[in-house]
């Protein structure tokens, strides 16, 4: 299905540079909007959102689920990818075609044409939820970029450097924006400060973030 989508023709997205190897594609997910939301509903029926526990026993304010060949999980034993949903014991739901098409198209437009994601971490932010500065480093191969899709309420994206105390740039994320980072930016620290109250016409008082990775 992915060969039906030409990255530039389908998206018509404006490009904003975040750092070397990192771009923000404004509105890139909007052509996929209805398909994404329908697929998301199906995924969460089989693997509902849950607030995971960190190895230190902290309950995350962001609710999470996954789809694809593997899912990112955290509990008292550590951070990892697992082929099975630990809450249901079943395989994670397969990655929908529209998810895969969007991720590949965005990565291609950002300069990473070989990206074939096998995992999608789905985050649900409600007002007050946040994600502290962190690196995505549980994947086996850092040659793959990260593709991050924003849906629903607006948020602020903090994008730093390779050290936690490096200077941080802030970018306003709106419904349909897609951030892609890889290469020299692949291990940059990033995060989302506390989500503000608001209402989105399609998603209500929440923000959904789809984060595509090459995990296995």
> How does the overall form come out from the CA principal axes?
globular
CATH architecture grouping: Sandwich
CATH topology heading: Jelly Rolls
The total of helices stands at 3
Structural class: alpha+beta
Give a quick rundown of the structure:
The protein has 216 residues and is an alpha+beta fold.
Care to describe what's here?
With 216 residues, the protein is an alpha+beta fold. The chain has a single domain, classed as Sandwich (Jelly Rolls). 15% of the residues lie in helices and 32% in strands. The chain is built from three helices and 13 strands; from the N terminus they run αββαβββαββββββββ. The chain has helices at 7-11, 33-46, 97-109; strands at 14-19, 22-26, 63-68, 71-75, 78-82, 119-125, 131-134, 146-152, 155-159, 169-173, 178-181, 190-192, 207-213. A hairpin with a 2-residue loop joins β1 and β2 (22-26).
Index terms:
seven-stranded antiparallel sheet, four-stranded antiparallel sheet, alpha+beta, 13 strands
